[in-house]
Specification:
There is one protein chain. By secondary structure, the chain is an alpha/beta fold. The chain has a domain of 173 residues: Rossmann fold. The chain is 33% helix and 28% strand. The protein has an eight-stranded mixed beta sheet with strand order 5-4-6-7-3-8-9-10, sandwiched between helices. Helix 5 packs parallel to helix 6. The chain is globular and about 75 Å long. The mean pLDDT is 88.
């Protein structure tokens, strides 16, 4: 009897909520549609990422030091967004060039169409953060690369840190209402060493760490490298898993 009464009360509550807010206001978890993603374009990495790619409507960070694969991973995701396949529509792709030092050659080599790529050049980190906020407020719903936070220790400056913290607070609800894929590149000063306590670690849904393991050579000529890619954080999925990827330099 008690179980029947609980079920009746629950059904009554659900009916009241749906009558006021609509039938889609409350649903079971199995009825929820899968979250949209932007694939990385690398099958083994997509198998590691939740849902098979970088989540849309959320912030993902890709960190590395020097030639480690973080830019090629982001670039291939941008190329996938431009291409679109099957049920995935083609997305507008944009790069916020925080340091006016964008590596167009790597983007092109990874399949990004430069003729349809929009680039915003900023006057520094604070300006780049504000430009990104303005884009999201304007309803941007494509794939956006923030390239890049190069000096993590610059965040020791309280004003710079406050600018980043405010931007991350603004981006959370803006991204949640959009279908934008926001990829953030972080340049580490020391391989594998990520300072503790930075706000990005808490604001991101996905965090990847790229560490170069060795160079690939043909004779004396360096042709590429192998990097270990570790999934440091993943909301709703496995983490602390890693894989090795090969990257070609030409």
């Amino acid at each position: 009897m008690a179980e029947r009464e609980r079920k009746q009360r629950l059904e009554s509550t659900v009916a009241v909520i749906q009558a006021r807010w609509g039938p889609r206001a409350i649903r079971t978890a199995r009825d929820l549609p899968p979250k949209a993603v932007t694939p990385s374009g690398i099958a083994t990495l997509d198998a590691l990422l939740p849902g098979g790619g970088f989540p849309r409507g959320q912030l993902s960070e890709i960190a590395g030091c020097g030639t480690a694969g973080h830019l090629p991973i982001a670039a291939r995701a941008l190329a996938e967004a431009q291409r679109g396949q099957g049920q995935r529509e083609r997305q507008q792709v944009l790069v916020v060039d925080a340091e006016s030092n964008l590596d167009l050659a790597t983007l092109s080599r990874c399949g990004v169409r430069l003729d349809t790529l929009a680039i915003l050049r900023s006057r520094g980190l604070a300006h780049a953060l504000q430009m990104t906020t303005d884009l999201l407020r304007a309803g941007f719903a494509g794939a956006l690369l923030f390239d890049r936070l190069r000096d993590l220790y610059a965040l020791a400056d309280s004003q710079t840190l406050q600018s980043l913290e405010q931007a991350l607070r603004d981006w959370g609800p803006l991204l949640a209402r959009s279908a934008a894929t926001l990829l953030w590149l972080t340049e580490l000063s020391t391989p594998g060493l990520y300072p503790d306590g930075l706000p990005l670690a808490y604001a991101t849904s996905v965090r990847l760490l790229c560490e170069r393991e060795r160079w690939l050579k043909e004779g004396q000529r360096v042709t590429g490298y192998v990097s270990q890619i570790t999934l440091l954080k993943s909301r709703g999925g496995a983490q602390a898993q890693s894989l090795s990827l090969r990257f070609r330099l030409a």
